Amino acid sequence: MKRIGVITFPGSCDDRDARAAAELMGGGTVALWHSDADLRGVDALIIPGGFSYGDYLRCGAIARFSPVMGAVAGFAADGGPVLGICNGFQVLCEAGLLPGALLRNQGLRFVCREVQVIVRSTGTPWTARCQVGQRLTIPVKHGEGRYVHDDPERLAGEGQVAFTYAAGENPNGSLADIAGVRNLAGNVVGLMPHPEHAVDPLLGPTGGRALFESLLAAEAEAEAEAAPVSTS
Amino acid sequence: MSSTEGALPLHRQLGLTDEEHQRVIGSLGREPNQAELAMYSVMWSEHCSYKSSKVHLRQLPVDGPRVLQGPGENAGVVDIGDGLAAVFKIESHNHPSFVEPFQGAATGIGGIIRDILAMGARPLASLNSLRFGDLADPLQRRLLAGVVAGIGHYGNCVGVATVGGEVAFDPCYAGNPLVNALTLGVMPAARLLRGRAEQPGDLAVLLGAKTGRDGIGGASVLASASFEAGEEAKRPNVQVGDPFQEKLLIETCLELVERELLAGLQDLGAAGISCAVSEVAARAGMGMEVDLDAVPLREPSMEPWEILISESQERMLALVHPGKLDEVTAACQRWGVLATVIGTMVEGGTLTVRRSGEVVAEVPAKSLADDGPVYERPMAARPANGAATAVEGERDAGEAGIGLDGTAELPPDADADPAKALLALAADPTCASKRWVYEQYDRFVGHGTVAGPGSSAAVIRVPGSRRAVALATDGNGRYARLDPAAGAALAVAEAARNVACTGATPIAATKCLNFASPERPEVMGDFAAAIAGMAGACRALGTPVTGGNVSFYNESDGRPIHPTPVVGVLGLLEDAGLAVPSGFPAAGLDVWLLGETRAEFGGSAWQRLAGQLEGQPPDLDLDAEAALQRLLVELATRRLPASAQDLSEGGLAVALVEAVLARRIGATVELPLFEKPLVLLVSESASRALLSAVPDHRAELAALAAAAGVPATRVGATGGDHLVIPAVLDLGLDELRDAYEGALERRLAAAGS
After folding, report:
1. Which of B64, B147, B199, B632 could share a disulfide with B105, CB 3.0–4.6 Å?
2. Which residues contact B495 (CB under 8 A, 6 or more apart)?
């Protein structure tokens, strides 16, 4: 079983949810601690939602300096799959691992609702099993989720837009309805919606399953390829 | 203390009466010094001591087969099976929220969360019961926006889901809004049963934030007195919250509890260190030596009395055996939480407080915590309200349960166009969708929200179990204003009915009693009546009261609020997968109305739209109510209903609007023809529910209802994109949705608030 590391910063709120979701989807999980630079050999990383260090300065601005983030940068540079959700997305942007920035919502209020999200890039380990144009219902919950970038056309042209909000669903005034982006290599993805809150049908929509399925299926295939077929 | 109060003796400045001052002297055998007086003033305040309510609260049923901890602790605890316990409590933060809505509401959330934490439970979810004045008033819009933002800010940051509650508007709350917050936590039942383990020599370790000058006298000066003009001067008495610190405190305390490193845990809320140390010592039957030099201060110049009664937020007091101190300190360091030994448990019952080696206070812990005055305040019955319009008109309850002859009694404006009436009710801020409010709350965190805001009751799956807990809060001040006993009983019934609609069995209650000054005999009369009504309903419905709080002095410039008993009911679902949703989930379902509809309009939403408040609130037959609730649970257990919701404020009209808009599934509902269709739409008869179910379940559902003695009428079917009552009204869902879901936002935007 592949192991997904979930980082806990002081103020992380969705770390337990992210682990629960990964386990529900058949993954193994490892709890990682912000002050520990050892990623303990995990196969993928989730930087969860919450309010790291209280987010009193600027969301993610302090978390990026924590010891674990140095290790995350190395892991990402080596092609390891990284998913930043909400505050985790903000942290990845602050750390320069993803382009752009996230500002206060246009409506100036925190917004929590289910939204329709459209997959725009399948060139990531988190969306490999999706179709371009596939609609996923996933909740958002944030006060600072308005995505900005100085050249969104170039971003789209280079395939770095991973998710957009469906028409009329943009909850925060994000530029070009961008809900999530990826790095050029595709292994680092960040998004404002919370896939970890959308995996269990008992609790509501299940649009988040596609991300976990993509990661875990891709890994299962890689495992199958790597392992010689044994006939015993 | 403001300069205008300079002439008053110190004890009065601190909120103690002359008689109470004498009682302190009697207790100590001497004059108290300033620090001691400050401690007594907060501990014997109405807010902390329940001195006016105690004699009445004793009437409430507190025991039941599932009650593990009743009133008197930080929160109530009930057995929910599988070795798990649910911890829950509701509390008010009314006055701080009026003085400073954002921080007042935020710290209210922080406080109730620490109450749950103090029991050793992980806080999972919160509900809020809010009351404001008319939104036409810009101040009310500002209060609503501030309170909601404050609740969201704090709850979202600490990662505790906000999953339900209610918001209502009435001019009586204009000068005194209500902010009641309920939090639910879950823990292994054994953690409570293990009991307390204090011993002499145990160390009192203060955890969390430094102590500052915020919230000095919050309990005594702010929470235990009425508002007069110029309440802004009380703003320094409101605490400021830091949810990040609270989040660290939660995780730290839970780790310490789970690793069994603590001998006791106590939150610091009202009355700060004074309250925490005296309650911990008094409960253990011991004393404590407290060293104020050790308390980390934000302002070093603080006087001993200020340190003792400061209500700085995000602090807990842990009791630790000396041998475990190193482990505790290390865990706190890892989370970045300050941990400071400020005292030692000692034999005997004396609380000795030192500063710079000198004794600054020496009092019996028990005297502070338990020996406060108890008042039997004078009571007076209110004059009867308006004309008695409760007419027992001709009824033909029959099997149908709908048997109005349409003439027995009429609502105001009885000839109004039913379609317009329905739209008006849908757009009434109290009845309308609270989406604008709850979209500012994180309802998802915790991986357990089976049903959140907009549902009859919130349903929270218990971590590590198939079980779920359902919670609802209800309380109708207009009913209670007309008849406090009936209003309180109806609040219990409605909250329990909401819980039962989800399929959960109501098992316990918590209450927040919001009243005006107890020094007014008519208010105490209302209070006593409300307690009696609540006690009866809780007995009949099997929901013992495990705690909560009493909030008096809810009045401004001599204008009292309506008596507003708010009740939170907790229910248990053996299987979270059995939870019944609210609102029609699909087309092609039968629509059922359970219960009996009578011509009852006293205190109704429809009366409010007509500017009236008169008559009697709906009659409550507790046997019929209990039968309906048992039936709802039974039906859910057999998976018969596709949806269920209760009928309450706004009656059938509002229930239908909620049902068709939940998933945008229309319905055609046939109502018995009678002269005035409005009667059936706006009556607020109690003990009713609106269900949908597949036609295959018709016979079984009818038979079960008949066996339970509950009238059940199949009134129509779901489908289409209209709400149709043939020959009465036909409304498109878009028009309904605009009225219902846009109402609050329109009112808030009206004046650019």
Report:
1. B147
2. B457, B472, B473, B474, B506, B509, B567, B568, B569
